[in-house]
Amino acid sequence: MKLTAIELGGFKSFAKATHLTFGEGLTAIVGPNGSGKSNLAEAVRWVLGEQSLKALRGKSRDDILFAGTGDIKRVGRAYVRLTFDNEDGRFPVEAAEITVARSLTSGGDSDYTINGESVRLLDLTRMLAEAGIGTKTYTVISQGMVDRYLSVSSVERRAFFDEACGVKPLQIRLFQTQKKLERVHEHMAELMTIIRELEPRLRLLTREVQKQAEKKQLEAEYATQQATYLHHEWHRRRQEVNNWHHRVENLTRQAARGREKRAAATAKLTAPQAAGGAAPPQPWEAQARRLLTQCGKLIDTLLSRQSVKEGRLAALQQEIARLLTPVPVTPESFSEARQELEQAQEQEIAAERELAAARLKLEQESQALTLLRQEVVRERGSSFLHTIETTAPEGSKQVSEREIRALAYEIARLGEADPLALREYQETQARYQNLTQQLADIQKTAANIEQALSHLVRTIEERFGRQFALIQTAFGKYFQRLFEGETGSAQLQLTEAGVEIVAAPPGKRLRHVGLLSGGERTLTSLALLLAIVDAQASPFVILDEVDAALDEANSQRFAATLKEKSHTIQCIVITHNRVTMANADLLYGVTMQRAGMSTVYSVAFPESPYALTKGGFSFILTTHVKAAFTTPRQ
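RE: above sequence
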């Protein structure tokens, strides 16, 4: 890949459209001070994405635009285009020729294009970085960069070497990744705080929902057990009512037979009186009458207590009254009749008592069945009552009332359910699960970022070590070449604080670069810059007046070195140095024939590259180039 052309217009002093083409070898751009030749280097830096106005020697965007002069108005748009030969496919674009352009309007609108298509600055810098060029590489080297390596501290110099070794982008990515990890950790902390605040409420809601679930289960069990209990209890109660009803019927018949037997005994006792006339009363007769009277009173009391029917009460009273009439009997018959009567009375009384008790029990069981019917209707409804009345209980397992009460107690113990608890639990649980899933994802992200950080750190260390070693080797080679002495040496010392530069020109001992003379410092810096360019393997390099401080002898060695280097790397040098000009394969001259406007002329040298007169600048060039260099600025 090589740079084939630069086109610019409206950029700084280049008001009109200007076109420069480049070929293989060394190209020199020359011109008087203030002619604007360094603006070409800045144009290249600008189109490659430079954002620092300081690096472009400007204070505002307006300084990029041609400001106007005399009768020429200020331009409304500045543009720069670089055209590259991409035959080797160094650019990740399927095109034999790549044109990168940047423009700026007076309104502040900026645009980047690749082969005429607008792109983002990020896309442009990424493509240029893959091709090994850009603002952060040593594509454009100014005189200030030569001095910078020597005048800064070891810590600042380490930052320069990070750029030179190509790890600065990785360090920026490392810094961004660390910031991203910090944000991830902050997010993790926020999530954990929210989760910790949410957990007590979720536990409370969980217990409430579990209580509701337990209550539902108990209520379902209670409903089943109650149904079984009520079914069996209904049939048991109804069976009891039926049983006591039959018993009352049986006891009623027994009581009737007892009354008949007592009536027969009474008739036997009173029969003699009916057969004969009246006789004087005997003591035993009085006793019999008293017995009958007491019997009548006892029966009256019993019947009144047991709520005997009025008809039955009247019949008994008539019978007692009849018995109390005088009965003439003999002592022997009276004794026998009395015994029969007493037995009959005892049997009748016992039967009546048992009948009264049975009727009371029947009434109680009937009332209990009625209450049970009401309870069934209240608890389960009329349909369930109809079901248990018309069907027999299933299974032999019965449930006791105690078990039903125990279940009811457990349900009551759980208390009333919060109707909103389940919804709140569901919402809180969903939020909790979402947060915990986010936390798990972000923890995984943090682990991936930490892994990426470790990989970046290793990559930076490996790349820096590899590139630093290449620069170290090339630095020593170029140092000996520029100083023309195999005994000279220069070293880069990597310390904890940064990078130190020590050098020993031929015949001198090794010492810090700050102790070298001005020329030695410049040659040392040039040797280092050339070493960095070699390590970066840039496709082309633009050197802006880096040889300004060199004397004639040092210029000869530098120009020879640069000429040799141009065989492998396309070199464009902006210079005042006659020796450097003499070694150029293509020469561009920049002048200001009109104040504030730069004009470019070019010439390609034949085999004899240059000729110098004793008077200074006088080149065997075309008439136009010679006129351009000798015509004073207006």
